[in-house]
């Protein structure tokens, strides 16, 4: 009878949510200060590419997945989907806003299309779990595919219809929100490239890396050469 409790205790210990108001930030800052930070592309360089926005659970995981995809030039972790301005990690992760943890994806449309990014999105998480992804629970971890125009909205909806028509998830319904993009707020610096910079973190070891590896196994043709 104690097994379910032990499982819940383990999941809580590796949750993306901070253990208290200050501990997670303090630990993350300490970890990242001890690792070399890869130089990001300049704003001028980024302007050459298109952007796409998705939310599918802890942004540490989602960022690493999209970073592995060929044609993707840069990915940032942040917050979107709510109305509150300048949200913080503590506010979002504790469910004090209407935002979700999200990512901003800069990609080269000559190499990868928005349609393929949508396939990456649906193929790298469970879109049938409402307000939950893995051990992380709450609306801040909900599944959202953002669109910037009618063409993108149609691409997303058509793919959802395809998944449902092919009964990919059995009798489980897709609960992904298809939402017009309004604003993306960059997360605090220590969240950027979190998986790469903090490989020994317990959440990264037990949740993020296994999730990335499952994606890589199923989307081999989408991967950059260096991550095969």
TrEMBL record:
Molecular function as annotated in GO: peptide-methionine (S)-S-oxide reductase activity
Active site per UniProt: 58
InterPro entries linked to this entry: Met_Sox_Rdtase_MsrA_dom (IPR002569), Met_Sox_Rdtase_MsrA_sf (IPR036509)
UniProt keyword annotation of Oxidoreductase present: yes
Main EC class the enzyme belongs to: oxidoreductase
Keyword annotations: Oxidoreductase
EC nos: 1.8.4.11
Domain Peptide methionine sulphoxide reductase MsrA: 51-203
PROSITE patterns: PROKAR_LIPOPROTEIN
Catalyzed reaction equations: [thioredoxin]-disulfide + L-methionine + H2O = L-methionine (S)-S-oxide + [thioredoxin]-dithiol; L-methionyl-[protein] + [thioredoxin]-disulfide + H2O = L-methionyl-(S)-S-oxide-[protein] + [thioredoxin]-dithiol
NCBIfam families registered for this protein in UniProt: msrA
Family assignment from sequence similarity: Belongs to the MsrA Met sulfoxide reductase family.
Known function: Has an important function as a repair enzyme for proteins that have been inactivated by oxidation. Catalyzes the reversible oxidation-reduction of methionine sulfoxide in proteins to methionine.
Protein name: Peptide methionine sulfoxide reductase MsrA
Gene designation: msrA
